[in-house]
Structure formats: structure tokens, C-alpha cells
Amino acid sequence: MEKQVILNEVELQLTLNRLCYQLIEKHDAFENTVLIGLQPRGIYVLERLIGQLEKILNKKIVCGNLDITFHRDDFRRREIPLIPSITNIDFIIENKNVVLIDDVLFTGRTIRSGLDALLAFGRPNKVELLTLIDRRFRRDLPIQSDYVGKRVDTLISERVSVEWTEYEGKDQVILYTKNNENE
Amino acid sequence: MNSLSVKHLVGIRDLTKEDINTIFTTADSFKQVINRPIKKVPSLRDITIANLFFENSTRTRLSFELAQKRLSADVINFSASSSSVKKGETLLDTVNNILSMKVDMVVMRHPNPGAAMYLSKKIDAKIINAGDGTHEHPTQALLDAYSIREKLGSVKGKKVVIVGDILHSRVALSNIYCLQKLGAEVMVCGPATLIPKHINELGVLVSHNLKEALEWCDVANMLRIQLERQNELGYFPSIREYAMSFGLNKQLLDSLSKEIIVMHPGPINRGVEITSDVADSNQSIILQQVENGVAIRMAAIYLLASDIGR
């Protein structure tokens, strides 16, 4: 496995900052907007964004975590069953503006499941998508981000990993490339 | 935490501790789902499940059916009283006929011990045992242990007494296996005629004194006295005498030195194994057991269904 840093700690922080201001530009004071992180790893992006947004705006922003396991389209097509994570959305999203948040946008299938899972909580006024990394040209479904941290061109065999100080020891985004086919 | 180590859910005896914990973790998520405004997920959209009930049941059948529908599975129901079983068809023939209609999973209750095991060896579909005679009733034991875990935080190290007709009870046997695998201590309590002779080989304590057993335990699981089996064979002199010696009433409950949790798998004979004021008291978690039953069954079905057709 070859490792290549796409975003280092400083760059990642800058990107998160920019995304915060883009969200504020669009949603003003977040009066009718809620942020929802997708389990398992979108919630880490959400945590960071919420931390910064609350500092900038000096108010609490409504947010929640959404687990999409039971809405996936690859159930029974995987070797091991998917064990779900926790959903905690203690509000109804009826007529709210929702921003779905995930770390990496790849095939778009997770987001499709997320949209499906979201409807169990009401009919939102509008849904937008924020992803930290967009692996473009790799979509299986017609889904695009409204807010993008960084766009990268990747091969299917490659893997993009968003890592956080709290969980992996360091804030960074890494592209893993297989050295050869036999590995 | 991965898939289950078994292909069918025939009995708790075949499960590992990890299996049980996987089912519990999955049930936590399903419990969230069934408390939402929209209580349904599309996971099992392309799965068909047959509920075969060769013996009467209300709670278990409804609970299974609800669990299946909340997972978006297609469900067909069958009960022996209104079917060709009355015309002499064998179990294997009945089931094979149903399976040729392309059914992926079978939930079965049958009066003969071992019926689920027999079927799991003969046919292709997934089997979930919903009670086979006096043998096992795995989903009931899972939901009982899950309810204890929910109420007390964990099952490990807890003391559970199972009171009543241990001899005829599949709930008792499955509960003993399940609780022991999770690290609980188990005692059985009842009249000597209703306790199997060699039960202590399972590593359980035996008591014939209800007060003593209740003082020892954290949780009391009061089994139903199966009136249909008692009258003819005379395991105890009379219902009234049973209720006096082994029935749980408010006075007895209040006389204990600590607050215990009271469970009952239903259906309750009010005034026999448990009085109304106990069943409806805040120490009883009987209705939580029923709610958890749906979540546990969703988890078991979901996990077993994950390798259908692969």
C-alpha cells in the first residue's frame, strides 16, 4: 500500500473553515436548518463543523446522527452482515432544511440510502449534501455534493481515508494506492 | 462483531455468547426504529417468510409477524387447525410444499421437541424455532435476557430465579442456557413434581421455597402454570394450593429485603402464579418484555437473512 497525503492538518482545518462559512452564507443563522451526519464516519465531520459553527455564530445548532444500515441496497450481497450504528435524531425534520454530511462521496449509494432513511423522520423542505472529499467520476447514481471540501480523481482500487486526531491520532486525509495487482 | 455462527435459530444451546451479544446490539437499533414515527425499514424487501404454527399462539405469532412486516418482508401465515395437516400430511411434506412456493425462511412452532432441528437438516430454507414442545423457545429467552440487560445494565453476575413448571417449560430451558452463557446465576423454584430430576446437571440451583428463592434473586421470572397439562396428571393438589405456595403476591414482594424485578412470558393466569397487583406494579417489566420481543425477533431475522441466496 502506498500512502499519499491529500490534505494535511493545516489544509484540513482551512477546508473545514471554508465549509463552515459556505454553510453560513447559505443558511444564515440556521433557524430552519438542521445538520445530519451519516454513520459511521460522517459524524466526525459533523462534530468538527458543529464545533466551529457554534463558535462563529455563538449559538446552538440542531444536529443529529443518522444510521443507514437497514436502508442499504447491498444487504445479502456482502460476506458479513452489516451491524448498525446508533441513530440519534430527536427532532422531526418536517419542513426543515437538512444538510446531510459525510466524509467521502464515492459511488453515491450511501447517500441514496441516507435519503431513504431520512424520510422516516418526516418530509424535509430541502436536502443538501456536504462531503469533505468528492471522488469524482466514480458515481453509480446521479448524486452530487452541494458543498465539497476537496475533489480528487481516484481509481476504484484506491481508498481514501479521512482521519481524525480523536480517533486515529492525526487530522489528515490519505489516499492509499495498491502497489500491484497481486498484493 | 460479525455474522452469527449458526445458519438456523433452533435453540440457544447452539449459540455462542458473541452471537447473543450481536443479536442484542442489532436489537438496540431495531428498538429505535420501532419507536419512530415511521416504524419500518426496507432491509428484507425481497425475502418471503412463512410462519408455520402447528400449536396455538397469540403473542409469539403476532410478534414475529410484526417483526417481519417492520423489516418489509413478505409474510404468509399458516396454522395447523385450518390446514391439510388435519388430513394426515407429514411435517416434511407440508413444509416442502410451502417451500416450493419460493419461501426463504420458516418460523415454526410445533408440539414435538426437535421438530425445528429435524426440519433444519432436511430443508434448504432458514429455520427459526418459535417453540418446539418442551424443548426450546429461543427468541423468548433472548428477549427475557435483553429485558434484564435493559433494566439492570447487564446480565453478567445477576441472579435470576425461574419459578413454576420447569418440567414442561421450553421457556425455562432456553432461559437457563441463555442466562448462563451471559454469565448470570440461575435458580429454579417450584414443587418437586414440576422440577426435572437431573436439572442440577445444567448447573442451576434448585429451591422449593419461593420466599427463600426471592430473597436470593435480582430477577424473578414467573412461568405460566400450564393448566391444560395439570388437571389430568395431578402434579400438585390444586390450583389454589399452588398459588398459596408458589404464587407471587404483593405482600410477599413487599416483605423482601430488596426490590426485585418481576417478569412473566405470558399469557398470565392472574391470581395463580402472579397476582394482578404484582403484574401491574412498577417492579414488573412484563409489557417491556413484549415490546422488546419485536426488536429481538427483527434482529434475529435480519441477521439470519443476511446470507440468503448467496
Written overview of the protein:
- The complex is a heterodimer of chains A (183) and B (310).
- Chain A has 4 helices and 8 strands, in the order βαβαββαβββαβ.
- Chain A has helices spanning 9-27, 42-57, 109-118, 165-168, and strands at residues 2-7, 33-38, 63-66, 97-105, 126-136, 147-153, 159-163, 172-177.
- The relative contact order of chain A is 0.20.
- In chain A, helix 1 (9-27) crosses helix 2.
- Chain A starts with a strand and ends in a 6-residue tail after the last strand.
- Chain A is an alpha/beta fold and 183 residues long.
- Chain A has a single domain, classed as Rossmann fold (3-Layer(aba) Sandwich).
- The longest helix of chain A is centred in the first third of the chain and has 19 residues, at 9-27.
- Chain B is of the alpha/beta class and 310 residues long.
- Chain B has 2 domains: 12-137 and 291-305, Rossmann fold (3-Layer(aba) Sandwich); 139-289, Rossmann fold (3-Layer(aba) Sandwich).
- Chain B is built from 12 helices and 9 strands.
- Chain B has helices at 17-34, 59-70, 91-99, 115-122, 138-152, 170-181, 210-216, 227-233, 239-246, 250-254, 276-279, 286-305, and strands at residues 48-53, 74-79, 105-110, 126-132, 159-163, 185-189, 205-207, 219-222, 261-263.
- In chain B, the strands form 2 sheets. Chain B has a 5-stranded parallel beta sheet with strand order 7-6-5-8-9, sandwiched between helices. A 4-stranded parallel beta sheet of chain B has the order 2-1-3-4, sandwiched between helices.
- In chain B, helix 4 links the parallel strand 3 (105-110) and strand 4.
- In chain B, helix 1 (17-34) packs across helix 12 (286-305), helix 2 packs across helix 12 (286-305) and helix 5 (138-152) packs across helix 6 (170-181).
- The radius of gyration of chain B is 19 Å and the shape is globular.
- In chain B, 47% of the residues are buried.
- The model of chain B has no long low-confidence stretch (mean pLDDT 91).
- At the A-B interface, loops of A face helix 1 and helix 12 of B.
